[in-house]
Amino acid sequence: MAPVATTFFFYFLSGLTVLSGALVITRKNPVHSALALILALLGQAGLYLMLYAPFVAGVQIILYAGGIMVLFLFVIMLVNIERSQKEEQFNKQWLVGILAAVALGVLFVLVYAKGKSLFPEHAVQLPEQSNTQQIAVLLYGNYMFAFEIASLLLLVAIIGAVVMAKKRI
Amino acid sequence: MTDATKSLSRLSSSNLELGEPDKTFLDTNELIINMGPQHPATHGVLRVILKLDGEKVLGTECVIGYLHRGVEKIAEHRTYAMFNPYVDRMDYVAAVSNGLGYCEAVEKLLNVEAPPRAKYIRVILTELNRLASHMLWLGTHALDIGAITPLFYTFRDREEILKIFEKYCGARLTTHAFRIGGCQYETYEGFERDVTKFVDFVKPKIDEYEELLTTNRIWVKRTKGVGVISDKDCIALGVTGPVLRASGVKWDLRKAQPYAAYSDFDFEIPTGQNGDTYDRYLVRMQEMRQSLRIIEQAVGKIPEGPIMAKVPKVLKPPVGEIYHSIEAPKGELGYFIVSDGSTQPYRVRVRPPSFVNLQALDMMVRGQLVADVIAVIGTLDIVLGEVDR
Amino acid sequence: MLDYITSYLKSDTTPGQAGNFLWVFIYILLIFLGLSVAVIAMNWLERKILAHMQVRLGPMRVGPHGLLQPIADALKLLIKEDIMPAEADPFVFWIAPLIVVITAFTVFIVVPFGPTHAVTDMNIGVLFMLGVSSLSVLGVVMAGWSSNSHYPLIGALRSSAQMVSYEIAMGLAVVSAVLMTSLNREGTGTLSMIGIVQAQQAQHIWFVFKFFPLGLMAFVIFAIAMVAETNRAPFDLPEAESELTAGFHTEYSGFRWSLFFLAEYSAMIAVSSIAVTLWLGGWMRPFPHWLSGETWDLVFSLIPGVTFILLAVIAFVGVIRMPKHPYFRVQTIGLAGFGAVLGLIGLLLFVPPVRDRLQDIFWFSAKVAGSMYMYIWYRGTFPRYRFDQLMKVGWKVLLPLGIGVLILTALVGIWL
Amino acid sequence: MVTRLKAQYGSGIREANTYLGQNYMVVEPSIAAELLQILRDQEQFDYCVDVTAVHYPNREKQFDLIWILYSHVRNERIRVKIMITDGETAPSSVSIWPAANWLEREVYDMFGIRFEGHPDLKRILLPDGWKGHPLRKDYGIIQQDQEWVQINLGIESGQ
After folding, report:
1. A118 assigned to some structural domain
2. Fewer beta carbons under 10 A from the terminal one: N or C of chain B?
3. How, if at all, do strands B31-35 and B47-53 pair?
4. Same-domain pairing of A54 and A133
5. Is the Cβ of B28 closer than 8 Å to some Cβ of chain A?
6. What does the pLDDT read at residue A119?
7. According to the model, what pLDDT value does residue B13 have?
8. Whole-number pLDDT of residue B8
9. Is pLDDT at B7 greater than 80 in this prediction?
10. Does A166 touch chain B (CB under 8 A)?
11. How close is the nearest chain C Cα to the Cα of A42, in Å?
12. Looking at residues C108-112, what average pLDDT do you find?
């Protein structure tokens, strides 16, 4: 099944993601930036689809766009945002910002200069099997241990949240 | 949201200061919601200011008076007979019992006794009116909690009662059927047949309502344990009627201090145990059945005879004062009339059951959720015409 | 060009897979049209059935038996001016209904009306469906927030909390159904919707009846979660008229409001079609294996035609009972015309080639119509849950039950 | 029951008889609070049916304040009356019967009689800023508080 990686789709989706990423930081209204973030995540899901990983794309949509972003919007709405809107947009640490930008620029240049040696010759060969089975085999096979620890961590987080909210009920 | 609370705090609601959220803990600030006078679920123009912490109700304050027409002031400028129609406009849902209370109070003042036939007709019409009032209550109360269907069933059956009223005295809702000293109209010739036909028609219908709601899991979950009030609090707060009986107090004026031929009928007084919305619902359903029993017995033995006692054209009751109360569908409805010997009453004070029952709202709702406030207002069965007078 | 078109007709895969974009476009158009007709019919049906449940007649005035009522509503909503509240956030206010409608419609890409009648057959069909239906929460939250008054905001927060929590119960039920597909002899589980229905066909059993109590329990969990997901019937707290005025779409009016209305109905159809696909054997006709054999196939293939003829007969009975007053003449003609159309469709369905192709679609829509009737029935009988009870049912009843059913299905599957 | 109270208060109880079968007592305002407390505790008048007032403008004590009480145990009603002049404050019975809370607020709203000891004495039926007490005899039947009407409703007169 040839991946659907037509170049137009690729540039469109990655452009969309970068653009909405920029929007996230420039918008004054926090809800607008949250929406931009959702757009970025959906663009990312599209990219996954192009890499022929539908399972990851599906999970991305459900978890990120459907779950976490909804809770983001919850928080933004409950905290009244009049105050934050009036604050002046850019804070003082522009010096640190420039340094970080320069460092990033140097990194890009280096990677570009190194060029081919970093990347394998041809596009990676996609396995024939459906992506879901493959992930399942990896997740529950070789990386079973890591998977368990991650779920333990989540459990701790949930219990923490309950304890914090518990005091008030 | 903040501008809504700013406009509210200008209101001098003394016992409802906006508590500052304790900064020590991540606490959302307390919210004042204004269940406004035009809210669909407050039966009429009642405004309830709710102080909420999230969903829980911390305190309520009822702002009433939107429907105040100054009935008691008007009474002082009308003769006794002229004031009679005003009385129907107070509790417009149970107009007949208002009229009965007023006429009987003035008859006591004049020391006049209504003839037995008039008394029987009065009892039949009052009980029919109680049925209509309970049906309207059930329809709107179920609608507030979300069940749409009972409303149509109850209004279809209530229509039959209103037809009988219309045939008897020409008016459906504010009937003005009674005069001081007896009844105005003789019963039209098919009256007994209509009433018995109605009773047989409605008896299975009440079981139909029960079928719809009593064992409906969500209905039980929405009403059990909601708006609980104990019998001691009821008596202390002056709450009367089905609300009092649902808390376990077996007190009904028709039995305690019988008036207008109630003494010759046998009927029980249904009571509940734990005074929550579900018990009040059951008590009112039983009361409907008891009213049917009374009507059945009354229709069977309406005595012959005059329908109007010998009452002078112009009523000039002797100087003095009298307090007479009857069991209206909502509770004890009392009239305190002071007469100075002239044709116009010197002072008429109406003791409305809804006004006093509404006072218990704050205690019943504290600690419950917003959705329960609606359920409790529904179960108190208040009519704003009577609360504001 | 011509062979490009006919090439699809012979192939036995869905247009999406066959890469035939023309047919994909045609299918999308068909689904879009079919859905709007379904929404209009649903609007009329809901008002009439609910009315007859409540001892009243429902719309009778606009057109015969109120048949033109939905069209009149749609026109009214189009003409009405849709205002935007003063300090509302214009961009978010404008985009919220769009998101809700888009998510409600994209679910239909994966829904299989027949073995080849689906826009495309993604091999993560179920996952895609779950993902898209979780996006509609965003639209609701945005609508509530952008109306800038605290009643819609509270409505939006409540409905999004409700949708998020019932999504999990829905997901669990769906996973247990998907698990059933893989527990047959071949052991090839699949996420694609058509694959699931084919698995049911292969295993000669609808998943509702598989591993007897478990399949049914999973279906019941999904049925409850689906009602809550679309804010309907006992779970319609956000639009609870008595507490909050009208939930998150209070400030919307005119065409924007009709978008929400459209989205609600299409979401209902989408979610019930998923339930039908996963548990009630999609487009399979009832008892495919007990009453198999040539004669039975013929009988079942005639049923679609018979139902439409029956509807036509009902319409004609209505025509006869219409009062003879001149005012009703237009309505009698209209009803007769409607009956004639139905009769025509019925006859058309008897024609053998049409009959075979459309049979699966008929059975699928008949099952979806059955579940729509359930929606209306719930609305007629149940009062509304209080918000905390609603969450309690979601988290404390459906979730553990869902996990239990999932584990039991797995155990029984391995053990069997 | 009246004899017991008479023995205790003697002059306090001015008059106690029945009219048309309903017994009532006229009592000195000073001992009213105490008497109401006794009525509830010893005589089990546990239900305060009503608190109301009657205005006699030309009498030296302008207002008649009336408590209508009922005892569930004895199934009996009684009316306790006190006579007070305009501007004099009356004892509030909210501490004895919570039911009297709104009833006294309405008497204050309609007659202008202040109750000391009342937790939240302000108008209940009329808007808060309204001047004048309608149920007084000197208050005309079509009279309205023009100034309030102009400010809040923006029309020049309610008539």
Report:
1. no
2. N
3. antiparallel
4. no
5. yes
6. 65
7. 41
8. 40
9. no
10. no
11. 10
12. 86
| Structure-token pair, residue B132 | 């209509």
pTM (predicted TM-score): 0.84
Would you place residue A81 in the very low, low, confident or very high pLDDT band (cuts 50, 70, 90)? low
Interior angle at CA C384, CA C255 and CA C270, nearest 5: 50
DSSP E strands in C22-87: the ranges are none
B321: pLDDT strictly greater than 90: no
Taking CB atoms and an 8 Å cutoff, what residues of chain B touch C376? none
* Most B-contacting residue of D20, D24, D111, D128 (CB-CB within 10 A), to test interface: D20
> If DSSP codes are grouped into helix, strand and coil, which group holds residue B43?
coil
Residues 68-87 of A with CB under 8 A from B: 78, 80, 82
Q: Which pairs from B163-170 meet CB under 8 Å and 24+ separation?
A: B164/B128, B164/B191, B164/B194, B164/B195, B164/B198, B165/B96, B165/B125, B165/B128, B165/B129, B167/B191, B167/B194, B168/B125
Summary mean pLDDT of chain B: 84
Instruction: Please tell me whether residues A81 and A1 are part of one structural domain.
Output: yes
The count of CB pairs under 8 A between chains B and D is: 94
Using CB atoms, pick whichever of B64, B70, B346 lies closest to residue D134: B70
ipTM above 0.85, yes or no: no
Retrieve residue C6's tokens: 């006919």
Given CB atoms, is A66 within the 8 Å cutoff of chain C?
A: yes
**Which residues on chain C are in Cβ contact (under 8 Å) with A69?**
138
* C-alpha closest to that of D82 among D151, D138, D13: D13
pLDDT at B283: 93
Determine, for residues B321 and D48 on separate chains, whether the beta-carbon distance falls below 8 Å.
no
pLDDT at B40: 61
B27 contacts A78? CB cut-off 8 A: no
Query: Does the beta-carbon distance from B25 to A78 stay under 8 Å?
Result: no
Contact C380, B149 (CB under 8 A): yes
Tell me the sheet residues that pair with C382.
none
Q: Within B226-383, where are the H helices?
A: 231-237, 242-246, 253-256, 277-300, 353-359, 361-365, 370-380
pLDDT of D74 reads 84
Distance from CA of D116 to the nearest CA of B (A): 17
Percent of chain B whose predicted confidence (pLDDT) is above 90: 23
Question: Do A81 and A131 sit in the same domain of this protein?
Answer: no
Q: Which of A51, A67, A85 is the last residue before a domain boundary?
A: A85
How confident is the model over C119-172, as pLDDT tens digits?
777 778 888 888 888 888 888 888 888 877 777 877 888 888 888 889 888 989
A17 and A75 share one domain: yes
CB C242 to CB B144 under 8 A?
Answer: yes
Of the two residues D70 and C237, the one the predictor is more confident about is: D70
**B146/C240 Cβ within 8 A:** yes
B near C: at least 3 beta-carbon pairs less than 8 Å apart = yes
Contacts of A130 in chain C (CB under 8 A): 123
Give the E-state strand segments of C103-188 in sequence order: none
Check whether residue A14 and residue A77 sit in a common domain.
yes
CA distances in angstroms from A64 to A53, A72, B64, listed in the order given: 16, 10, 49
Residues A79 and A134 reside in one and the same domain: no
Per-residue pLDDT tens over the stretch A107-155: 888 888 877 666 666 666 555 556 677 777 788 888 888 889 999 999 9
CATH number at residue A62: 1.20.120.1200
- Taking an 8 Å cut-off on Cβ atoms, the answer to whether D75 and B256 are in contact is yes
Once rounded to an integer, what is the mean pLDDT over residues C348-364? 82
What is the span of the domain harbouring residue A158?
127-169
pLDDT, tens digit, 9 for 90 and up, residues C260-309: 888 889 999 999 998 988 888 877 877 777 777 777 778 888 888 888 89
Distances (CA, A) of B55 to B136, B223, C365: 29, 17, 41
Q: What H or E segment, with its residue span, contains residue C374?
A: helix C352-381
Please, which residues have CB within 8 angstroms of residue C123's CB and are 6 or more apart in sequence?
A54, A130, A132, C190, C191, C192, C195
